[in-house]
């Protein structure tokens, strides 16, 4: 096995070792590209900026589809948009955001792709004290706490490394779950509606 193949394992061990020390400690979230990546710096910056721009503007993801639907209608394929909307409606009307579980996609939430956002924002997570995984906690996020994506510091496996054994749900503004396609992003990231009734369900789950 080469030194390059060992490197991610060493990082993982370092992160795990840090958790065993007395708090507080600072966890620097890893980027998507390795320090010795052969990808040119300009391309790394381009990919990072593009990913960040697209994810930040998830509330308008539906606009390109509206343009596409209009185009298909104009060229005589109007039945295609109707079929696609019909297929999407069950997901849109599922009400998953009102449940304690939501509809999380763990592999997506903890994927390395979020290292691009960590690099873009220069994220560091500061844990002031260790937490008992048998208890439940409420965390406040500032600013933009009502936006599920504002918890980007917890994605990419960061939360699991800093607070192992503690499951998490992100409460987001109700309106976010009525934005086509954007609602799926919120749900996949572990988001649920921020209403009191839903929050009670999460805490009692």
From TrEMBL:
Its EC number is 2.3.1.20
Transmembrane stretches in the record are: 50-73, 79-96
GO BP: glycerol metabolic process; triglyceride biosynthetic process
User: What Gene Ontology terms describe where this protein resides (cellular component)?
Assistant: endoplasmic reticulum membrane
* Compartments (UniProt record): Endoplasmic reticulum membrane
- Entry's Gene Ontology molecular function annotations: diacylglycerol O-acyltransferase activity
Recorded metabolic or biological pathway in which this protein acts: Lipid metabolism; Glycerolipid metabolism; triacylglycerol biosynthesis
Q: Report any Pfam family annotated for this entry.
A: DAGAT
Q: Which UniProt keywords apply?
A: Acyltransferase, Endoplasmic reticulum, Glycerol metabolism, Lipid biosynthesis, Lipid metabolism, Membrane, Transferase, Transmembrane, Transmembrane helix
Broad class of enzyme this protein falls into: transferase
Q: Would you say which domain of life the source belongs to?
A: Eukaryota
Which membrane topology describes this protein? Multi-pass membrane protein
Q: What does the record list as coiled-coil region(s)?
A: none
- What family is it from? Belongs to the diacylglycerol acyltransferase family.
Q: What is this protein called?
A: diacylglycerol O-acyltransferase
What is the scientific name of the source organism?
Answer: Phytophthora palmivora
Lineage of producing organism: Eukaryota, Sar, Stramenopiles, Oomycota, Peronosporomycetes
């Amino acid at each position: 096995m080469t030194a390059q193949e060992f490197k991610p394992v060493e990082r993982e061990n370092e992160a795990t070792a840090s958790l065993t020390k007395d708090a507080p400690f600072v966890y620097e979230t890893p980027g998507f590209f390795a320090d010795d990546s052969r990808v040119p710096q300009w391309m790394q910056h381009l990919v990072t900026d593009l990913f960040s721009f697209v994810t930040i503007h998830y509330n308008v993801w539906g606009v390109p589809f509206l343009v596409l639907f209009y185009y298909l209608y104009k060229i005589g394929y109007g039945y295609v948009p109707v079929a696609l909307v019909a297929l999407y409606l069950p997901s849109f009307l599922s009400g998953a955001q009102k449940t304690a579980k939501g509809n999380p996609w763990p592999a997506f939430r903890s994927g390395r792709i979020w290292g691009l956002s960590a690099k873009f924002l220069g994220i560091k997570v500061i844990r002031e004290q260790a937490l008992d995984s048998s208890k439940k906690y409420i965390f406040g996020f500032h600013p933009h706490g009502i936006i599920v994506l504002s918890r980007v510091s917890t994605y990419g496996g960061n939360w699991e490394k800093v607070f192992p054994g503690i499951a998490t749900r992100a409460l987001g503004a109700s309106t976010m779950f009525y934005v086509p396609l954007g609602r799926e992003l919120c749900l996949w990231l572990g988001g649920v509606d921020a209403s009191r009734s839903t929050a009670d369900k999460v805490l009692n789950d």
